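S1.2 Input.
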Amino acid sequence: MQIDLPIQTPQKQYNTLDEIQQRKAELLSQIREDNRQFTTLKNSLFAPQKDSSKGEWIASLVTNSVTAIDAFLLIRKLTKNYGFLFSRKKKK
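S1.3 Output.
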């Protein structure tokens, strides 16, 4: 399976140094624009969240607690059923 990247290969042959420099300047501006867009998206993704109300804080606390308990019970169930895969063999 091949992943197509948005990289464009030049279709034009460059004959002079000026054409190469012009293409280099175009690519540099594209890279800077992509970098600006990436930085904007990264900053919006990792921006600190607004202060929530007391009710939202309690709901978040309950949700995180239920998730932690669920993870604990899942691990306990898996180790009970498949714990023999991880146990050390006893030496006799």
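S1.4 Remarks. The CA atoms of residues 84 and 92 lie 18 Å apart.
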